[in-house]
Amino acid sequence: MKPSLPKGTRDFGPNEVNKRSFIFSTIKEVFVRYGYQPIETPTMENLSTLTGKYGEEGDKLLFKVLNNGDYLAKANEEALNAKDSVKLISSISKRGLRYDLTVPFARFVVMHQNDIAFPFKRYQIQPVWRADRPQKGRYQEFYQCDVDVVGSNSLTYEAELTQIYDEVFAKLGIEVIIKINNRKILAGIAEVAGIADKMVEMTVAIDKLDKIGLDGVKKEMASRDISDASIETIIEILQIEDLAGLKDKFQSSEMGLKGIEEMEKVFTYFKPADAKNKVKFDITLARGLSYYTGCIFEVAVDTGIESQKDVVMGSIGGGGRYDDLTGIFGMKDMSGVGVSFGAARIFDVMEELNLFPQEDENSLKVLFIAFDDQSHEYAFQCLTKVRAAGINAEIYPDPVKLKKQMKYANARQVPHVILIGDSEMESGNLTLKDMKEGGQEALSLDDIITKLK
RNA sequence: GUGAUUAUAGCUCAGUUGGUUAGAGCGCUGGAUUGUGGUUCCAGAGGUCGCCGGUUCGAACCCGGUUAGUCACCCCA
Is the CB of A144 under 7 A from strand B? Predict the structure, then answer.
C-alpha cells in the first residue's frame, strides 16, 4: 500500500524536532523564572467539556472520537434514520480531541481548585487539533504554548506577560513589536459611536485593518449594519495614537475611561522604554476572540528592521484577559490573563532569518568504521569507551565496503570518523579522520577522547 | 461550508495538435577504485501516468464522475 498522512498533519524529522525543542526550552526557561509551573491535560476531553465553548463554527471544527465497541447499537435511531449528524453525535461519540489549551485549563482549575494555590500560574505546551480546511501555515494538528495566570485581577500580570514576551523574543533573536490594547477601550469606541450592541462586529472588522485597509474596514462595518455616522466616529477615534488624546473622546463612556486607566496602570509597572523590543499601545488591535474582556496582546515581527524586512508572517503570539474563565464550569469570578506563542510560525521566522544555533549538541560527533570482522569487534569496544566519556558516537553496523560506510558518514554529517583495521589494532593508534578538512591522524583512543570532548 | 488548482519513477518535475518502446535531475545498486567519502565517468534496477467510466482506429494528453493533496475565502494559531 502507498503510505500517506491524514490531511493537515505532517511528520517532523530529527532536524526539525531538535530545532523545535530549542524554541520550547528557551520559552520554558523564561516561564519558569517568572514562577509559572507546567501542567498537561489529556489529548481527549469529554465532548461535553468542549462543545459550545468556541461558538457554532468552533463546534464544527472539533474532532470527535467514535465510541468504542458496538457504537451503532446505542445510536439514536431517529437521528440515524433521518441522517441528522448533529443530533446523532452525542449518541455515538462522548469524547473529542483538545481544540485549544485554554478550555482544558479552565476545566483543570475547577476540578483541582482545592489543591491549587491562587493566583495559579501555569504554562502548557501541547498539540491541539482542529478539523479546519488546511492551508499555508495552518494545520489540523499544531502546538500551542500557553502561559496563563488565573485568580487575580492584578495588572502586574499584564506587565509581567509583556516582559515574558519581550524576554523570550530577545533570547530567540527575533525583533518584534508587542502591541497592547484593551477590550474596554474598544467597548468605549462602540459606546461613543452608539453601537454598543454591535461591538463584536466592529472588532472583527477592525481586526482586519492591516489586511484590508481602512476602506476595507469601512465596507466590512457597513456590511454588518453599522451606520455611516457610527463608522465616521469609529474611524476618527482609530486615528488617535496616544492614551491622553483618547480621554477627551471617552467623556461619555465610563467603560472607555476604565480601559485607559488600566492601560496607564500597566505602563506604570512596565516601562516600554526598558524593553528590548518595541512595546506599544495600538488602538487598532482587536483580536477576534470574544471572551477577552480587558487587555489584549499581539506580537508581530518588526519588519522595520533591515535584516527582517522580507519576513511575511501574521502574528506570532497573542492573548489577553478574560474575566470569567471558569464560569462555564461553575466557578464564578475567576479572572485570568494569558498569552500564547505560535510555535510553528516562530519556527518559520527563525528558519528564514537563520537564527537557530549552528552547533547542535544533540548530533552525532563521531562514527566508527571497521575494515573486517575482527576490527569491527575491536572498534565496538572502543565505541563503548567513547560513549562512556560522554561523546555522541556510533559504529557502522557491518564492516562493509569503505565507500558505503563513508557515504553513510557524509549523510549523517558527522564531523569525524575513526577508521580501524589491522594496523590500527596492532599499533593501538586509531585513524581519526576530519570529514570536513579531509585530513587524518593516528592517535590513541584516550587522545581522541580528549580531542573530541 | 464556498471557490480555484494539481495528481506521471523512491523524491522534485518535463512530456508538443491525441500517434510506435513515457523521459530528466536527484536518490538507490554495481563498476572505474579489494585501507578512504564529498567531485567525476560508465552501467543497471525502478511506472496500473490517482481511481472508474466515456469519446477515438489509437488516450498520460480530450470529456464525465470520483478520491486525495495544495492554495484562497469564512474563521483562526
Answer: yes
Chain B footprint positions (protein CB, under 7 Å) = 1-3, 28-31, 33-38, 68-77
pTM surpassing 0.90?
no
Report which of residues 203-242 in chain A place their beta carbon less than 7 angstroms from any atom of strand B: 204
Compute CA A386 distance to the chain's CA centroid, rounded to the nearest angstrom: 38
pLDDT at A1 over 70: no
Q: For residue A81, with 0-12 CB atoms within 10 Å meaning exposed, 13-18 middle and 19 or more buried, which class applies? A: exposed
Look up the ipTM and state it: 0.84
Per-residue pLDDT reduced to its tens digit, A119-165:
999 999 999 999 998 888 889 999 999 999 999 999 999 999 999 99
Instruction: Report whether pLDDT(A58) > 90.
Output: no
Pick the CATH number of A366-452 from 3.40.640.10, 3.40.50.150, 3.40.50.1110, 3.40.50.800: 3.40.50.800
For strand B, is any atom closer than 7 Å to the CB of A289? yes
A83 CB below 7 A from strand B atoms:
no
A399 touches strand B (CB under 7 A): no
Which CATH number, 3.30.160.20, 3.30.930.10, 1.10.3720.10, 2.160.10.10, labels domain A14-45+99-353? 3.30.930.10
Residue A402 approaches strand B within 7 Å at CB: yes
Residue A128: how many CB atoms within 10 A of its CB?
Answer: 19
